[in-house]
Amino acid sequence: MGKTYERIDGRLRTFIEGQPLFFTATAPLSGDGTVNLSPKGLKGSFVILDEHTVAYLDFAGSNAETVAHLRENGRITLMWCAFQGPPNIVRVHGRGEPVFRDDPRFPEFLAHFPDIDPTQHGLRAVIVVTAEVIRDSCGYAVPLMTYDEDRDLHAKRFAREDDASLSAYFQKKEHIGTSLDGLPGLPLPLPPSSV
Predict the structure, then answer these.
(1) Coil, helix or strand at residue 104
(2) The pTM of the whole model exceeds 0.70
(3) Cα distance between residue 161 and residue 184, in whole Å
(4) Could you give the CA distance from residue 139 to residue 117 in angstroms, rounded to a whole number?
(5) Does 191 reside within a domain?
(6) Which range of residues forms the domain containing residue 88?
(7) Is residue 179 assigned to a domain?
(8) Is 8 part of any domain?
(9) CA distances in angstroms from 120 to 77, 96, 180, listed in the order given
(10) By C-alpha distance, which of 156, 167, 13, 161 is closest to 80?
(11) Cα separation of 16 and 24, whole Å?
(12) In sequence order, what are the residues at sequence separation of 6 or more whose Cβ sits closer than 8 angstroms to the Cβ of residue 61?
């Protein structure tokens, strides 16, 4: 049976920090808008800031649905599944905010990710999430799978970009500056990196 938690600590924190993959889910306010679900990985790109706040790095990709939805309404759910060990699923339902590269808080948040080179991966923002509801459930139907390692393809692709070329790349993509539903996405041109 599922349990609700007051904070992210102890066993719950250990479980979350031990997972190599998590998922984010967001949606626009419009009832016929596009719900978005994204996998997130890359060792060192997720941190627990305190018992109610987590953050992860938002990297270059082919769209910016999560950013657009958070800018519109802030609703987000994060989910971790145990693919190894005892079955478990943890969800953090909360409010999220994209902290962009030109935000004065950006360097402070980025300092929480010491294992990530900010010049790699086309870093766009730090997503900061404040937990409102924290729950777990059994995960009995989640398959057992083995984690081998992170892929290096994303870093290889975006490591060769500088601020200007990355901004040009984003401006060519249809759903970076504007979401699938026409919501404002990533601010373009991309603000220069402050780090």
Answers:
(1) coil
(2) yes
(3) 24
(4) 34
(5) no
(6) 3-172
(7) no
(8) yes
(9) 26, 23, 26
(10) 13
(11) 14
(12) none
